[in-house]
Design brief:
Blueprint: H1 7-10, H2 29-35
Length: 53
């Protein structure tokens, strides 16, 4: 996740599916680009997912 901030500053100090989440006052780069009219995509395999159980 690209925010321009170190993990301790953006709130993600561990895996999102383990209870950590992005500080709601922090905008990831994809959101900033969308706000400026760009279209963004996720390409490849995302490792941030829920446990299958």
């Amino acid at each position: 996740m690209l925010t321009g901030l170190l993990p301790h500053a953006n709130g993600v100090n561990g895996q999102i599916n383990r209870g950590w989440d992005l500080d709601r006052h922090t905008s990831p780069l994809a959101q900033i680009l969308r706000d400026e009219g760009y279209t963004t995509y996720l390409v490849g395999f995302s490792h941030a997912c829920q446990d299958p159980t």
